[in-house]
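#onboarding

Welcome to the new folks! Below is a worked example of what a typical request in this channel looks like: someone posts a single protein sequence, and someone else replies with the predicted structure as tokens. Don't worry about understanding the tokens yet, we'll cover that in week two.

Example request:
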Amino acid sequence: MAGGGNNRQRFSTTTSIAEYLKQLLRDKHNVSTCAPNTFLHCERLLNEEIERVRMEMIGLKAESPNSSFLASLPEPEGDKVQIIEKVFIPVNRFPNYNFVGRLLGPRGMTMRQLELNIGCKVKIRGKGSLRDRKREEQLRGKQNWEHLQEELHVVIEVEDTPTRAQIKLEKAKDEINKLLIPVSEEDDELKRKQLEDLRLLNGVEAAQNMDPTNNYNNVYATVIPSPVDTGLMQYTTTGSLVSAFQPSLTQLQSGIIASRTPTTLVRPMRIHGVVTGDYLKQYRGHPYRRS
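Example response:
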């Protein structure tokens, strides 16, 4: 296959991804209004692709095989092993700090990006890991819910050859421990980026609920990131995990999506399920404070 077997095409410009999303929303509207409850698989596939494109618009990528960390790993030697380790969250020392919201990020994006960058699985477990406190009390002590007896913690799971697995584990522990250091609001760059990403997601969701006969150009000119700045979340020199893009609303509102000329559709790509965090409902006022 051409391109070294890589059949995943990337959106070349922000204009093309916005136009593609506009076409998807229009198709969804046509299918659901012209023949409601008839083309169920078509509607499902459209919804999946719309969700994937939403993630692409805010910079979350399904794969990052060429990230500097993954590229630096040694060649695999030996059979694969699974390593599981816990990192406890300092809720006793900082009882009013919402560590869960900080770890998850908007729609679970912070945690998901960490998993993609390092090649691991991360879960939040223990007391307080469920938003529904009543349900948590009902489940405590039952089979498969033993972790609710423990203090709030993060579970890291790594599966790889022994040397690579240990390197991934140490990297994941290091990055999670950085996220578990409380930061004042005025100095919290990660929080600002998470709220920025959340506003973008909410803007796209609001646009999806609008009638597709409306002016999409105006809708997307206020929510898509600058074409020169889109990218993965990256680690800064200070160790903070931040989103690499900076939306340039002035540039976008000045007419970067001024043309209604249809662009060439890109090849569909599939993104794995994104972790959803109920704690994001608390992102009102101070996002890291629990009520």
